[in-house]
Specification:
binds nicotinamide-adenine-dinucleotide, 9 strands, two-stranded antiparallel ribbon, Rossmann fold, 44% helix, 7-stranded parallel β-sheet, alpha/beta
């Protein structure tokens, strides 16, 4: 008999990550911390790989408060051997790896003509090069586990648009987006999905320290004008999409990018205007 096409087999449990193990790079702060806590909230045990071991310990404590197991891996994501050892420790301690979140990254603005070789290399190491070793180590652990998996890369809306002062960073994020497409094909035979999320502005504690204007009243007023949904993003906005992509709700989603940007990529130069509603390049 043929498949009953009128029946829905979707159950609400499909969003749960119960009995799954996740590893989040840069999980000690900012967006990574939000994603680590979001994954734990929906049932996953979480390994937090962060260069700041003390920050990772705090997040691990919060994961445990949710009744989930946590592991701290104090490591620099640019150190390939440390990343490989961290993934091995995760499997040894938490028993498996089902979800990998490649989140560690970031930059400071610097124009091309002012950039030193060292600054350029550091940006590439942190925002693109590490992706190869972490994805390879994480995917190998998933293949060995034999139960598939989900990889989520945190790119940026700068991977799509021009970004003066952020040329190398933006190029790395564009590279991450296309790396995701290719690896989706390579890993599909193992039941491993890989997707990217592309946030726009998400004020984190770190950002509020070095760019306080972003969280000032004037900053928020500007964000209300240029971001269609009227505000900057927050950690839960990113975590919600990461949980979706990690879960069976996204069982047929791979090789793609979800913009978590309040609509800024769609707006492409349109800004909110009190008199006219919206205007182009205002
Ligand atoms: N915040 C934003 O507005 C925004 C927007 C778009 C994309 N992103 C991307 O989101 C990701 C997270 O950014 P964020 O703003 O939350 O950063 P953040 O600086 O607030 O937090 C980064 C975390 O990563 C850790 N970390 C930094 N370097 C590391 C390294 N070499 N190895 C291991 N851990 C390291 C830090 O200790 C910290 O816990 C980055 O990839 C960034 O490019 C951020």
């Amino acid at each position: 008999m043929g498949e009953d096409l009128s029946a829905s087999r979707l159950k609400r449990d499909a969003i749960l990550l119960t009995a799954k193990v996740a590893l989040v790079t840069g999980g000690g702060g900012g967006i990574g911390r939000g994603i680590a806590l979001g994954l734990a909230e929906f049932g996953a045990d979480v390994a937090i790989l962060d260069i700041d071991g003390a920050a990772a310990e705090i997040v691990a404590g919060l994961v445990r408060e949710k009744g989930r197991r946590a592991l701290v891996i104090a490591a620099d994501v640019s150190d390939r051997d440390a990343v490989r050892a961290g993934v091995a420790l995760c499997v040894e301690t938490l028993g498996r790896l089902d979800i990998l979140v490649n989140n560690a990254g970031g930059t400071r603005p610097i124009k091309l003509l002012d950039m030193t070789d060292r600054q350029a290399d550091r940006q590439i190491d942190l925002n693109l090069k590490n992706l190869v070793a972490t994805t390879q180590a994480g995917a190998s652990a998933m293949v060995a586990g034999g139960a598939g998996g989900a990889i989520i890369n945190v790119a940026s809306i700068e991977g799509f648009r021009a970004a003066p002062g952020y040329s190398v960073y933006a190029a790395c994020k564009a590279g991450m987006i296309n790396f995701t497409r290719t690896i989706a094909l390579e890993l599909s035979e193992h039941g491993i999905r890989i997707n990217t999320i592309a946030p726009d502005l998400v004020p984190t504690e770190h950002m509020a320290r070095f760019a306080p204007g972003i969280v000032s009243d004037a900053g928020k007023a500007a964000q209300a004008k240029y971001i269609p949904l009227g505000r900057a993003g927050n950690l839960d906005d990113c975590a919600g999409v990461a949980v979706f992509l990690a879960s069976d709700m996204a069982a047929y989603v791979t090789g793609t990018t979800i913009n978590v940007d309040g609509g800024t990529w769609a707006s492409s130069g349109w800004t909110r205007d009190d008199a006219q509603g919206w205007k182009l390049f205002g």
